[in-house]
């Protein structure tokens, strides 16, 4: 049995246009995603460096590699992988139930390429990181 996709939903009290701007503007993406070398160009590689000292030094040692696959007004898709491991895919989609609210849905898929036992701790850590770090950071960036 393979691990399920990580699926999260976060509600931001802001118009969808503001949230859309935050997922499309490179300087804002760096803030909420905590990544390095993000340009917003399709096919470009960027890095998620969990070590703050290495991030400050622009070191990609131990960083997750990401490649921007799609970027639209209400959708961002990128791969997430370590060198020599299968790629997983992160999709962030926006929906506006009303003029002042945006629902952000994050799906991190592709876990079926890994043996469950080998990747379950990483899956758990990522689920927590997306939920308690990245999505709240997006919320804070939008409302700043």
Describe this structure in words.
There is one protein chain. It contains 4 helices and 7 strands, in the order βααββαββββα. Helix 2 (26-33) crosses helix 4. The protein has a 7-stranded antiparallel sheet with strand order 1-7-6-5-4-3-2. It is α+β, with helices and mostly antiparallel strands. The protein has a single domain (6-143), classed as 2-Layer Sandwich (Alpha-D-Glucose-1,6-Bisphosphate, Chain A, domain 4), CATH 3.30.530.20.
Shape: globular
Output the radius of gyration: 15 Å
Low-confidence stretches: none
Going by CATH, the architecture would be: 2-Layer Sandwich
What CATH calls the topology is Alpha-D-Glucose-1,6-Bisphosphate, Chain A, domain 4
Structural classification: alpha+beta
The domain tally reads 1
Would you state the CATH class? Alpha Beta
* Secondary-structure element string: EHHEEHEEEEH
> What is the number of helices?
4
Side by side, the strands of the main sheet go 1-7-6-5-4-3-2
């Amino acid at each position: 049995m393979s691990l399920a996709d990580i699926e999260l939903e976060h509600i931001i009290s802001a118009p969808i246009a503001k949230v859309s701007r935050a997922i499309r503007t490179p300087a804002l993406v760096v803030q909420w995603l905590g990544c390095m070398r993000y340009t917003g160009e399709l096919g470009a590689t960027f890095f998620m460096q969990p070590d703050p000292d290495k991030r400050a030094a622009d070191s990609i040692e131990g960083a997750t590699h990401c490649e921007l696959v799609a970027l639209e007004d209400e959708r961002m898709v990128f791969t997430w992988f370590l060198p020599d491991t299968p790629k997983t895919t992160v999709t962030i989609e926006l929906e506006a139930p009303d003029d002042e609210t945006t629902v952000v849905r994050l799906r991190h898929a592709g876990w079926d390429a890994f043996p469950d036992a080998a990747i379950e701790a990483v899956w758990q850590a990522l689920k927590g990181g997306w939920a308690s770090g990245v999505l709240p950071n997006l919320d804070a960036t939008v409302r700043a």
